[in-house]
Amino acid sequence: MSRSTLGLSDELQAYLRAVGMREDAHLAALREETASHPMAQMQISPEQGQLMHLLIKLLGARKTLEIGVFTGYSAMVVAKAMGLGGRVVGLDISEEYTNVAKAHWKKAGVADRIDLRIAPALETLKKLIENGESGSFDFAFIDADKANYVSYFDNCYALVRKGGIIAFDNVLWSGRVIDPKDTTDDTVGIRALNKKLHDDKRVEVSMVPIGDGLTLALKL
Hints:
alpha/beta, 8 helices
């Protein structure tokens, strides 16, 4: 939940955003509105959005999953990258946050590509599996309550196809993952996820130090 990349000076980050990414007016407007939100730190950085855009293009993704929508920046990134006919299934529990998202999705012309489901994510994931949607998603992005990250991975592993990618935000957790005195549920959950992915031979993984840490897991 960081809107900036760890370890970059403000000047270098500004340069990165000036020449290393392309953010259109709809995405910029949503990011700027969210910047004044009391929970603004929950929004991904625009450079992370650019990386996700590229991944969607590389995958040729047509159907994606998002756990933790917030104000909708990452869902808009993915919907735009997929183009007409693409579908994002977005899971969240907050109508307050996602009402901001829906307004911006409509302005950007991507609202019809995003299937928002307001309910506890684990319940919705279970329903997707029960409905026969296992192996049908090209990409999943997980950026919700950290204590459930391992459970989210287990469900997304079933739902994502072979050759698809599962991405996890906040895996560095502002450095708290290496603080042995931090035993909060969220920190413990991220540590457990990081260890599980490291040891799981069913996936190839790369932890990228962008934003607050992004792990990409390729399903083999």
